[in-house]
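Deliverable D2.4 — example input (C-alpha cells):
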C-alpha cells in the first residue's frame, strides 16, 4: 500500500513563472547594455570594460535560459510521459550558466596577466561613460531579480551574476577615473583580474548546488538520519527502510520510504501522521510512502540499488 502527496508541484514550478515579467525586463535591459559595452570595449581598448561586457553576456544568456526553462517546463506539464515535468531544466540551465561564467572569468584573468607586461593605453572618458550606464542597468536588473532569487536556483544564478556585474561596473568606473587622473594604465588589467577573482568563487558555489541536485544528493539542510528517526517515531511504525530524500528542483524536496507497521496499526492513520511529520518538521510536501503491514511476510521485495 502506498500514497503520494503532490499538491506542491504547481506552487514551486510557478516560482520562476511568477517573475517572468521581471526576467524579460532584465533580459532586454542587460542585452542592450551588453552590446553597448562590447562596442565601447573595442573602441577604448579597455580589458576591464570587455570583461564587464563578457560578464553581462553571461547575465543575458543566463536569464534567457531561465526564460526558456520556464516555457519548456510549463509546456511539459501536459505530457504523461514526463511524470515530473521538466523541472530539472532549470537546474541544467543554472549549471550551464556556471560553466560559461567560469570560462569568461578565466579568460579575463589570463588576458589581464598577459597585459601586465605592457599595458596598452585606453580611452578613459568613453570607458567611464559606458561603465556608468552599465552600473545603472545592473542596479535596475538587481532590483528586478532580487525577490525571485529566494525561490529559484536559476533566478539565483542570474541574480548572482548581476550582483557580480554591478560590482564589476564599479571597478571599471574606478579604473577609468584612476587612468584619467594619473595615467596609470595598469589599473585596467588590475580591475579585470579583480572582477575575475570575484566571479569565480560564486560561480563554483552555484555549479556545486546544481550538481548536488542533479546527482540526487539529499538537500544540505536536511539530515537523512533525522528524517529516518522522525518517521520511525510515528505511532504504529515498527521500521523504516528504503528511505530516499532528494531535491527535484529549487524548493521542491521529495522523499520516498517504506514503512513497516506494527500489527493492528491503522494504515490511514500511519500515512496521515507520517505525511504531517515530513511536512511540519522538514517542509517535505511531496512524499511517496509504501506501507508494509508487519503481519504480511515478503511485503517488500529485495532492491539491489
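Example output (designed residues):
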Amino acid at each position: 500500500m502506498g500514497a503520494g502527496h503532490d499538491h506542491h508541484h504547481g506552487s514551486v514550478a510557478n516560482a520562476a513563472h511568477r517573475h517572468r515579467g521581471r526576467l524579460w525586463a532584465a533580459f532586454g535591459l542587460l542585452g542592450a547594455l551588453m552590446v553597448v559595452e562590447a562596442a565601447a570595449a573595442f573602441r577604448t581598448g579597455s580589458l576591464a570594460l570587455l570583461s564587464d561586457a563578457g560578464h553581462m553576456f553571461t547575465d543575458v544568456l543566463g536569464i534567457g535560459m531561465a526564460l526558456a526553462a520556464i516555457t519548456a517546463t510549463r509546456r511539459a506539464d501536459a505530457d504523461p510521459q514526463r511524470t515530473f515535468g521538466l523541472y530539472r531544466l532549470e537546474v541544467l540551465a543554472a549549471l550551464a550558466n556556471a560553466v560559461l561564467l567560469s570560462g569568461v572569468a578565466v579568460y579575463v584573468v589570463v588576458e589581464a596577466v598577459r597585459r601586465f607586461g605592457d599595458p596598452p593605453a585606453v580611452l578613459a572618458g568613453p570607458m567611464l561613460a559606458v561603465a556608468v550606464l552599465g552600473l545603472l542597468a545592473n542596479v535596475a536588473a538587481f532590483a528586478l531579480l532580487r525577490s525571485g532569487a529566494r525561490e529559484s536556483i536559476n533566478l539565483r544564478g542570474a541574480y548572482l551574476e548581476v550582483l557580480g556585474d554591478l560590482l564589476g561596473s564599479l571597478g571599471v568606473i574606478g579604473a577609468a577615473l584612476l587612468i584619467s587622473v594619473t595615467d596609470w594604465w595598469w589599473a585596467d588589467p588590475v580591475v579585470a583580474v579583480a572582477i575575475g577573482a570575484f566571479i569565480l568563487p560564486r560561480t563554483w558555489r552555484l555549479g556545486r548546488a546544481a550538481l548536488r541536485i542533479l546527482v540526487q544528493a539529499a538537500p544540505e539542510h536536511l539530515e537523512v538520519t533525522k528524517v529516518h528517526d522522525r518517521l520511525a517515531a510515528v505511532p504504529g511504525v515498527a521500521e523504516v527502510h528504503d528511505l530516499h530524500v532528494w531535491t527535484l528542483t529549487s524548493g521542491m524536496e521529495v522523499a520516498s520510504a517504506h514503512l513497516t507497521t506494527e500489527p493492528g496499526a491503522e494504515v490511514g492513520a500511519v500515512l496521515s501522521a507520517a505525511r504531517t511529520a515530513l511536512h511540519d518538521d522538514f517542509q517535505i510536501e511531496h512524499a511517496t510512502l509504501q506501507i508494509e503491514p508487519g503481519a504480511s511476510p515478503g511485503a517488500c521485495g529485495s532492491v539491489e540499488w
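The CA atoms of residues 129 and 176 lie 9 Å apart.
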